[in-house]
């Protein structure tokens, strides 16, 4: 359809979609650059569950692959865990249709999990452990140099709060890290993308979404509480989620309380003024949260964050 045959409403929808797609592409491009996620010659194994996040990740990576100044290949991998009612034709048809190299791995982890875990108990931890092992094995078999997962900014923030509220740790979910078996580099190209942008994008692109409740597992209650809290904050305090994510990119170990991260035991006053030294008696000054961006966090100390005066 050409521009002249579109109605005003369709033109507006097209304009909004283009803006959204551009923003997501920039978010992914920035995350890839800031963390050096993808390098020349990489073979990226894109883990595809059939949910909105992994479809969006694959779609945007395929777009970036065309314009990137480096060469890298993509293999989409889906693990069919044999959950009852899993629509096994959807992903192969989609992936063949868009012409991307792919593997569908069939492993009946569902039977193992339902046999081993007592009825009524949560199955997610064993299920995801099994899935992780299989995906690592596949990454080795296909010679993947990176494993890409579809976690986005809001997953990263939720994990931070889960760890703080229930785990007593200041720990989130990294955009890039070596896998726990030490053999793979795991990347999260959607690390800077907001979940609400991904929902709108997946909706507009009409990805053939596979429902995520086929295993019959109850949603994790703690995760649910955190997700509700973040959604509520986002509504009542626009800019707060952005600021919190920026804070994760702007960590000041000397202003926390972990002697393993900062050598408090051996600090000495050497008479040299320090921009990041303790201001002891000053009140904190805060910027407008809506104006703090990830890019700001890459400059030396712009924002005085944390702490009631
Ligand atoms: S929700 Fe179901 S498929 Fe997902 S990790 Fe939990 S048990 Fe496994």
TrEMBL record:
Keyword Disulfide bond: yes or no? no
Q: Where in the cell is it found?
A: Cytoplasm
Keyword set for this entry? 4Fe-4S, ATP-binding, Cytoplasm, Iron, Iron-sulfur, Magnesium, Metal-binding, Nucleotide-binding, RNA-binding, Transferase, tRNA processing, tRNA-binding
Chain span(s) of sequence motif PP-loop motif: 49-54
Q: What is its EC number?
A: 2.8.1.-
User: What are its cofactors?
Assistant: Mg(2+); [4Fe-4S] cluster
Q: Which residues form the tRNA(Ile)-lysidine/2-thiocytidine synthase N-terminal domain?
A: 43-206
Amino-acid positions noted as binding [4Fe-4S] cluster in the UniProt annotation, renumbered to this chain:
124, 127, 215
Q: Does the keyword Manganese apply?
A: no
Instruction: State the top-level EC class.
Output: transferase
Q: Which Pfam families match?
A: ATP_bind_3
Catalyzed reactions: cytidine(32) in tRNA + S-sulfanyl-L-cysteinyl-[cysteine desulfurase] + AH2 + ATP = 2-thiocytidine(32) in tRNA + L-cysteinyl-[cysteine desulfurase] + A + AMP + diphosphate + H(+)
What the entry lists under InterPro entries is as follows: Rossmann-like_a/b/a_fold, TilS/TtcA_N, tRNA_Cyd_32_2_STrfase, tRNA_thiolation_TtcA_Ctu1
What are the BP-aspect GO terms? tRNA thio-modification
How the cofactor binds, per note?
Binds 1 [4Fe-4S] cluster per subunit. The cluster is chelated by three Cys residues, the fourth Fe has a free coordination site that may bind a sulfur atom transferred from the persulfide of IscS.
User: What metabolic or biological pathway is this protein involved in?
Assistant: tRNA modification
Q: What is its main location?
A: cytoplasm
| Molecular function terms, GO-annotated | 4 iron, 4 sulfur cluster binding; ATP binding; magnesium ion binding; sulfurtransferase activity; tRNA binding
Which cellular component appears as one GO term in the record?
cytoplasm
Other observations noted: The thiolation reaction likely consists of two steps: a first activation step by ATP to form an adenylated intermediate of the target base of tRNA, and a second nucleophilic substitution step of the sulfur (S) atom supplied by the hydrosulfide attached to the Fe-S cluster.
Complex and partners: Homodimer.
Q: What does this protein do?
A: Catalyzes the ATP-dependent 2-thiolation of cytidine in position 32 of tRNA, to form 2-thiocytidine (s(2)C32). The sulfur atoms are provided by the cysteine/cysteine desulfurase (IscS) system.
What family is it from?
Answer: Belongs to the TtcA family.
Name this polypeptide is given: tRNA-cytidine(32) 2-sulfurtransferase
Phylogenetic classification of the source organism: Bacteria, Pseudomonadati, Pseudomonadota, Betaproteobacteria, Neisseriales
């Amino acid at each position: 359809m050409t521009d002249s045959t579109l109605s005003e409403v369709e033109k507006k929808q097209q304009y909004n979609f283009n803006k959204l797609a551009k923003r997501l592409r920039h978010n992914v491009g920035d995350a890839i650059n800031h963390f050096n996620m993808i390098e020349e010659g990489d073979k990226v194994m894109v883990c595809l569950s059939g949910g909105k996040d992994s479809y969006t990740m694959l779609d945007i990576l395929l777009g970036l692959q065309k314009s990137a100044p480096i060469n890298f290949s993509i293999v989409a991998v889906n693990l069919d865990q044999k959950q009852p009612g899993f629509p096994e034709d959807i992903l192969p048809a989609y992936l063949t249709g868009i012409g991307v190299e792919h593997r569908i791995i069939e492993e009946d982890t569902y039977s193992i999990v339902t046999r081993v875990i007592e009825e009524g108990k949560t199955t997610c931890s064993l299920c995801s452990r099994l899935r992780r092992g299989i995906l690592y094995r596949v990454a080795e078999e296909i010679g993947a140099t990176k494993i890409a997962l579809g976690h986005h900014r809001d997953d990263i923030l939720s994990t931070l709060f889960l760890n703080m509220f229930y785990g007593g740790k200041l720990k989130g979910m990294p955009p890039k890290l070596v896998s726990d078996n030490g053999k793979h580099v795991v990347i999260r190209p959607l690390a800077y993308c907001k979940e609400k942008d991904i929902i709108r994008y997946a909706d507009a692109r009409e990805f053939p979404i596979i429902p995520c409740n086929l295993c019959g597992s109850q949603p994790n209650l703690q995760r649910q509480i955190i997700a509700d809290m973040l959604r509520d904050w986002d509504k009542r305090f626009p800019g707060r989620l952005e600021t919190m994510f920026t804070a994760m990119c702007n960590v000041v170990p000397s202003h926390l309380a972990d002697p393993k991260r900062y050598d408090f035991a051996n600090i000495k006053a050497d008479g040299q003024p320090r921009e990041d030294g303790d201001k002891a008696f000053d009140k904190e000054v805060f910027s407008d949260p809506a104006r703090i961006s990830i890019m700001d966090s890459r400059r030396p100390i712009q924002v005085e964050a944390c702490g009631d005066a």
